[in-house]
Amino acid sequence: MAQKQVSDQPSVQELIAKSNSKKQKQMVEKLIPTILFLIASISVLTTIGIVLTLIVETIIFFKEVPVFSFLFGTEWYPFANKEPAFGILPLIAGTLKVTVIAVIVAVPFGIGSAIFLSEYASDTTRRIIKPILEVLAGIPTIVYGFFALTFVTPLLQQFIPDLKIFNALSPGIVVGIMILPMIASLSEDAMSSVPSSIREGALAMGSTKLEVALKVVVPAALSGIIASIVLAISRAIGETMIVSLAGGSTPKFDFDVTGSIQTMTAYIVQVSSGDAGYGTTIYYSIYSVGFTLFLFTLVMNLIAHAISKKYREEY
Amino acid sequence: MVQSLENGSNTLNDTSGIVYNTQQLNLWYGNHHALKDINLQIKENEVTAIIGPSGCGKSTYIKTLNRMVELVPTVKTSGKILYRERNIFDNDYGVEELRTKVGMVFQKPNPFPKSIYDNIAYGPRIHGIKNKKILDQIVEKSLRGAAIWDEVKDRLNTNAYSLSGGQQQRICIARCLAIEPDVILMDEPTSALDPISTLKVEELIQELKADYSIIIVTHNMQQAARISDKTAFFLSGEVVEFDQTDVIFSTPEDKRTEDYISGRFG
Predict the structure, then answer these.
(1) How far is B74 from chain A (nearest CA, A)?
(2) What's the half-sphere exposure (Cβ side, CA atoms, 13 Å) at A41?
(3) Residue A14 domain-assigned (yes or no)
(4) What pLDDT band is residue B266 in, cutting at 50, 70 and 90?
(5) Which of A81-90, A93-102, A151-160, B37-46 is the least confident region?
(6) Which residue of chain B comes nearest to A208, CA vs CA?
């Protein structure tokens, strides 16, 4: 108090009262929600626009091809001159073969790596390995596609002589390798965020490290782990380049993974790269396939949401 | 300070009924010498309180007793801790084996993010008890032992995190009782609790004394005076004085103990 009276300087409170910076800030503060709302609505509107386009074009497709024969048809011959067949099951089979193989490869290795990184690795090891994993996730898929076609397929042919040059196995494995870092990295995040006090509680009961990891940390991080797996599955379903390059273009409704297949995405690529003219049934068929693909990922996300809600262990 | 230990009550020189015999224990965190020449004998079926100002090494000491302190990678130790006459630092003494005998309750309640039932059944399960009937019995017995059965018996399947902090801490005590340990280590078990929950936990400790040896670290000197049989006063990594609690709180031998318990520092 004494200082204030001695000094010629006005008090800080007076300076604050004189300054009008707060008023300008209040203006900005009022505008910010509107601006942010506009930015947020752009992405929402874009999504709605895409879905609407898909629906509109799909409806046109269904005027020419009955919904029932599209959903339950086991033959897909869009380019046949006489009687083209638009049964989507062969394409779904192709997509599912690749996805299932990818998941079989990626889930055990991904979660295994996550457990290692989160529970066993030293800080230094983790600091080195995690960025490498993330780089792996950034490799362009065309590179993976070439890797599948020119390396993995010939390698597999050493063991499976019947394996065709285009098949489901090789791209499936490579898609698995592609989504593995995603599962590993996101699951590791989920496990690392389990509080260490919970680990200590388990260790103090005489648990081994493995018991702590499998019976305490993994269940506690389960919702995050499931979310990572579902995200990875969604990516596998939507993966295009690897399956276009190494999977072939022979849609078949069967369980054979050694022969040529065609996935939904690979079909869209095939048609989009110039095999069909605008306005033809084939042209509209890519929208119906795209819409099916969209439904697949949507359902996956809903399932993930439900599962992670059910198994959530709150801490 | 070693003298005060040996000159203490006669019971301290009697080696029968001793659970923990600490001999010349030294501990370093990297270059920091956290425990210096600790010699302590802890008797069974007693409550031993460890008091001292922050950073005096009391938490470090209690965590050394079940070797949880080794989770800090830079820790080095020397000397011996004999648990039931066996050195816990021996190479062939597995930490899991030790921790199955010596339970621990932590400062902050740390139940597993599982149901109340699964929290209590965790210990028996990892040690190989699978029979549902036996597990049911263990869960009930442990929850009763921790004086929380009546509060949770109708919602054993709800997540333990839905309980209040005090209830969570008693769940942690019940979890510890479920494997019927020999010793229970408590690291400031009431510091995160409200006074009523604290009182409940203190009463519980008194009851548990009949069946378990309890070593409790506490910041709260009144608590040490209320619940413990013996008290050790730690200062800067050394045991200044260790004696019957009533002696420590009425006629301490060391000036520093007197200063601390009369609130002159710490």
Answers:
(1) 13
(2) 6
(3) no
(4) low
(5) A81-90
(6) B96
| B159/A204 Cβ within 8 A | no
Inter-chain contact B103–A205, Cβ cutoff 8 Å? yes
Distance from CA of A222 to the nearest CA of B (A): 11
Contacts of B266 (CB under 8 A, 6+ apart): B52, B53, B54, B260
Task: Report if pTM > 0.90.
Answer: no
B29 has pLDDT over 70? yes
Instruction: Render pLDDT for A68-97 as a digit per residue (tens, 0 to 9).
Output: 999 998 999 888 888 888 999 999 999 999
Instruction: Please indicate, yes or no, if residue A21 is contained in any of the structural domains.
Output: no
| CB–CB contact A198 B112 (8 Å) | yes
How many independent structural domains does chain A possess?
A: 1
Structure tokens at B26: 């030294």
3-state secondary structure of B53: coil
Q: Does B96 touch chain A (CB under 8 A)?
A: yes
The answer to whether residue A13 is domain-embedded is no
Residue B37 burial (CB count, 10 A): 16
Q: What is the CATH number of the domain that holds A249?
A: 1.10.3720.10
Is pLDDT above 70 for A5? no
Q: Is B45 left (phi over 0), alpha (psi -120 to 50) or beta?
A: left
| pLDDT tens-digit readout, A36-45 | 999 999 999 9
Q: Does A314 contact B159 at a Cβ distance shorter than 8 Å?
A: yes
Strand B32-43 and strand B75-83: the pairing is unpaired
Nearest CA distance, B127 vs chain A (angstrom)? 8
| Residues of chain A neighbouring B172 (CB-CB closer than 8 A) | 201
pLDDT of residue B10: 45
Q: Could you tell me the residue range of the domain that residue A279 belongs to?
A: 85-310
Say if the ipTM goes beyond 0.85: yes
